[in-house]
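LOG
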Amino acid sequence: MAKPIMAKATAVWLVDNTTISFKQIADFVGMHELEVQGIADGDVATGVKGFDPIANNQLTQEEIDAAQESPLHKLKLKFNAAAVGEEKRRGPRYTPLSKRQDRPASILWLVKFHPELSDGQVSKLVGTTKPTIQAIRERTHWNIANIQPIDPVALGLCKQSELDAAVQKAAAKKAAEGGVMNDDERRKLVSTEQSLEMDAEPRMPSNMEGLEAFTLGDTPADAGLEEDPRGDDDFADADSFFNLPESGDEDEQPS
């Protein structure tokens, strides 16, 4: 439910000028009942000047009269047509001065490990501008040689839940586009908890890559070799195997 502006000052005025119960006032201004009682006792909001909700177009006299007559009546903020659509909009994330020098490192980390995130998502996570993100993506940033990627969660620039929500949104978009993801991409596009629960895909060691089709059968290189016409019976003993001359031939001397 919408709350009145200057809630504590409004509560002070209602305590001083009406007989509405503490519970009704507390519900209307968003305070605790004991805090409103502390205002009546003079222990809370000392020196705070009351803020008239009738003169400032937040309550009507009829609404106050109805609340005074019935302790169960809940005060309702007066509808103001001019205020429609004027709710507080969330602007760009504020980054403390002490952490602003860490933003390029976190942008580089996001660009490197989550390239699927859009510039708008990165901007919301770390509170930066799209030209800066684009410069780091294209490695045209003036200090790119000295920037080391660091997790923005570790730097305190965003929460892990916010990062997880961003990558989950990117994962949904990737799935909608019908893209095929490998194991590394699947781990990048899901939250931390989900990635830890995934089963790793079987991988071949990098030093054995290219040997997937290797077999022990006939290869084109083997096809060109001539088979030895001699059978197993031709190698009955060592002499025949090594094709050694018979001993009788060696003993014969020319006459």
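LOG (cont.) second protein
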Amino acid sequence: MSLVSNAVARLRDQRVDEGIKPLQARGWRAPRCGACRVIESHCLCAWRPSVETRSGVCLIMTNKEVFKPSNTGWLIADVVRDNHAFIWSRTDVNEQLLALLNDPQWQPYLVFPGEYVEPSRVTHTVDLAQGKRPLFILLDATWTEARKMFRKSPYFDRLPILSLLPDKLSRYRLRRSTRSEHLCTAEVAALCLELAGDSDAASALDAYFDVFSQHYLGAKRQQEVDVSTPAHAELLPFVRSAQELLA
């Protein structure tokens, strides 16, 4: 069963109910935990962090991405309480997405590289109007797909573009990227949270991403779970069941 608060999990379940078949990538037959998508022997659920956040996130996903067990948007939805997820369509715009973008409590930022946008729309900081909370719009797709989503979504045209300036290369090792400076979605979200002042959430998400990667790859390589790694130690202060994990 999916966690109620995780919009990516709900979106996956919705697609299954609609008759969309999950992606059958290598290893798809291995029994996976329904809540964290990791092979059951390396289940991540006990390490799910619990932190408070002022920020919200909205993931715009492709049909394929929502089914990929290596997807890191799921991790963001685990960490950030106010999370939303929608399947992108060029012709069928989700009315709930438009309502979210127009919700007066939020100040939306579309996260995208600034070099592809006119400079007047680009910012590198999160500067909020009084009474507003930041809502980060993340295009959770391959780089080729994300560029298409950006170009063919006119409802994004009025949004400011948050262009990140990361000072480190991506640590994502679950899928190959043609460019090492391309960050995965969870890494992007952690940078956004830090810019918005949600430092605990940023640290928790960074550590959760590293622990997820270790569990995922450990299962793939048939290695035993090692909870003594630095990533687990960094995540532990944010885990509600920390005492049980240490027992």
